[in-house]
Amino acid sequence: MQRILIFANGDLPDLEKARTLLRPEDFILCADGGTRHVLDLGVKPNLVIGDMDSIEDKVFQQLRESAVEMELFPHDKNETDLELAIHKAAGMNPPEIVIIAALGGRIDQTLANIALLANPQFATLNIRLDDGVEEIFFCRDQAQVDGRSGDIVSLIPWGGPVHGVRTESLRWLLDKETLYPDKTRGISNEMLSGVATVTIDSGLLLVIHSRGS
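Predicted structure:
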């Protein structure tokens, strides 16, 4: 099964940096208005899902004429279009899910999008938010950050303290430390090489990797 890229309807700060995330074999899934980003990239979606309230009529017609598969949902629903898209992708059992354009814009949507990744149902998935500039994912035991020397990595406890935090290849090392959600101990660390690792004993740790220019 190929990797799945989900395009959300948030901001995409740099179209060309987002383009670097694409691979020819990717399955492209759009969450409603996220279709605009895919079309801007000149790519044809494999599937569009949602209530279609954020898609212009001419774009909707274009999708129909191009025989793009669509799954339509009512406007009055309990889930966001992105949540529907994630559940759809998870059911396809891909090796990796990358969610693009889920950051920026409305703060409530951004926080909700990050919170979706904390769902225990997705604990076994390789899933992250990425826009080519920043990537965000959760560490539940061990995680690897792939980037470049000088990139910024922030570690934020999610929902409570995170115990036994250990890092490698970050400028300010953590060695079996506890990070607390009301403290800023894990903010703005710096990668010393192209790969950094984070290991924890317990808790849920949000990892934010900000790529250099």
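Summary: The chain has a mean pLDDT of 92.
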